Amino acid sequence: MTTSVELQHYVSGTWFQGDGGIITSVNPARPDETVAHGLQAGPADVERAVASADAAKHGWARTPAHERGAVLPRSAVILEQYSQVWGLELAREEGKTLAEGQGEVLRAAQIFRYYGNNGDREADAVYSSPRRREKIFVIRKALGVVGVVTPFNFPIAIPAWKIAPALTYGNAVVWKPASTVPLLAMRLTQALEEAGLPDGVLNLLIGPGSIGTALVEHPAVDGLSFTGSTGVGRTLAAAAARHGVPIQAEMGGKNAAIVLADADLELATEQVILGAFRSSGQKCTATSRLIVADTVADDFLAGLAAKAQFLIVGDPADPSTEMGPLVSGPARTSILRGMDAALNQGAGLLAGGFPYEDTARAAGYFVAPTILELREATHADVWRDELFGPVLSVRRAASTTVAFDLANDSEFGLSAALFTQDVTLALEGMDELDVGILHVNSESAGADPHVPFGGAKKSGYGPKEQGQSAKEFYTHTTTVYLQGGRRSSLRGAGA
Ligand code: UN1
Asked: Is 453 strand, coil or helix?
């Protein structure tokens, strides 16, 4: 139906074809439809991209912050202009719904606008000194060349929230996006190019995961920002430690929604459905565990299961679709395997639990929205392991304390959603729930650009992202003790 776009890499302001292995990005709803195709970048391209960023970094860091920032709102205008077209491409390439795809392009624009105004914000700090006629300044400087490695699930928003602060704080970037979503990476790069970003300041390489390792191990790379799986994040963090390179890694989540007995159950049902099944559950902030007060559990779970069963699952490009496919065949296989394991370990099936077999969906990577209740099966792996799909595991809690303990029963601590109308319980939840992001009466996913994003416990490593936190990663500080000479004082003789 639509033609496949030819993939290209971008180094030193020039687009070029790779000479590595073949790369094709397909529509996960119809895998015989190719969305984009080309050749991967190879090791020589990594060298060129890092050299290009290295050559550009000094000039960019010395460009006034307002001038650097000004590129971003110009790119935001381009993203807004193309949000319909690129949002459709995103839905075709990643599998989230059209509304989510178009919303994500606009979200990238919003992130660019936020960081575009960075020059207007407080930057450096001044401290008083214990000595006379001295001031102490803490000034911020760019790291230099940063590697950015991004996941498939937010093909444009996550890159935007890493690249925008990297650029606005004066870094040059080499970016390796997930190879399942290379087309959207080209689109974001085009928006920055058209907005006048100087050559070499952003370089894009499409290719295998080994590029991420090559970046973190490269002597000219000064930092790496990563979002993706826990396994890859820890490997990169270990390599970063070996090379003394700062890293920011956003990794797993096993986020709980906690529905207390006094909750607005209608609101909780709607929000748990969104948290668990939007983007087919492929968000690190998705709700994958549900803890519900046992006094309301029967009714709540019956209503939730009915809603899950009636979600419209189909082609993401169809505006009536509420949930699309998973991103790839291997992703579908691993979700189906996880569900089977849970059922074998004694979980009860409240909704879903199957791939689709009708002609419209059998070839695509679809899995039904699934709810599993772990009544006796409290040790099922699905309670602990991140599946990254539309699978919600449920446990009942006899009290609020038990509910909070169950929510904290995870090595991860990215986000949580607490449903209660009792302010005392909400305040208790703020203290007790060990997470980086807590939503009270809204779904566990979602993040605004002006506030910190990131997890507690093993969900994140290194400084948080977004808002004012981003500068903790993308800059280092120089503490300056500034004194005048001995020559004169205003009140001294001859002054
Ligand atoms: C969101 O909740 O809208 O990889 C964003 C992820 C997160 C981003 C979540 N880093 O899913």
From this structure: strand
Please name each of the domains of the chain with its CATH number. 5-251+459-480 (3.40.605.10), 255-440 (3.40.309.10)
Are 54 and 142 in contact, with CB atoms under 8 Å apart? no
Q: Which of 93, 284, 443, 465 is catalytic?
A: 284
- Among the listed residues 153, 287, 161, 289, the one whose alpha carbon sits nearest the alpha carbon of residue 228: 153
How confident is the model over 20-24, as a mean pLDDT?
96
- Report, as an integer, the average pLDDT of 32-45: 97
pLDDT-derived band at 340 (thresholds 50, 70, 90) equals very high
Encode pLDDT of 133-148 as tens digits: 999 999 999 999 999 9
Instruction: Please state the atom number of ligand 1 nearest to the C-alpha of residue 228.
Output: 4
User: What angle do helix axes 157-168 and 98-116 make, rounded to 10 degrees?
Assistant: 10
**Residue with CA closest to ligand 1 atom 6:** 284
94, 250, 386, 465: which is the annotated catalytic residue?
250
Active site residue 465: no
What are 18's two structure tokens?
């790779």
Centroid of chain to Cα 240: 20
What are the pocket residues of ligand 1 if the criterion is a CB atom closer than 6 Å to any ligand atom? 151, 153-154, 158, 227, 250, 283-285, 445-447
Q: Supply the pLDDT for residue 377.
A: 86
Q: Of the residues 100, 149, 153, which should be mutated to test ligand 1's pocket, given the most ligand atoms within 8 Å of the CB? A: 153
C-alpha dihedral (428, 430, 432, 436), degrees to nearest 10: 170
What is the amino acid identity at position 295? T
Let me know if 325 is exposed, middle or buried by CB neighbors in 10 A (0-12, 13-18, 19+): buried
Taking the whole predicted model, whether its pTM rises above 0.90 is answered as yes
Residue 307: the pLDDT is 98
- What pLDDT band is residue 495 in, cutting at 50, 70 and 90? very low
Residue with tokens 């100087």: 198
- Report how far residue 390's alpha carbon sits from residue 417's, in angstroms, rounded to the nearest whole number: 17
Token readout for 95 is: 């599998």
For residue 169, what are the CA distances in angstroms to 283, 363, 378, 465? 27, 45, 47, 13
What phi and psi values does residue 335 have, to the nearest 5 degrees? -70, -45
Helix (H, G, I), strand (E, B) or coil at 176: strand
Tens-digit pLDDT profile for residues 166-208 = 999 999 999 999 999 999 999 999 999 999 999 999 999 999 9
Q: Does 100 participate in catalysis according to the annotation?
A: no
Which atom from ligand 1 is nearest to the alpha carbon of 107? 3
Q: What's the confidence (pLDDT) of residue 376?
A: 87
Q: What is the pLDDT of residues 303-334, one digit of tens each?
A: 999 999 999 999 999 999 999 999 999 999 99
The answer to whether 382 touches 409, Cβ cutoff 8 Å, is no
Overall average pLDDT of the 86-114 stretch: 98
Alpha helices in 140-280 (DSSP H): 157-168, 182-194, 210-217, 230-243, 265-277
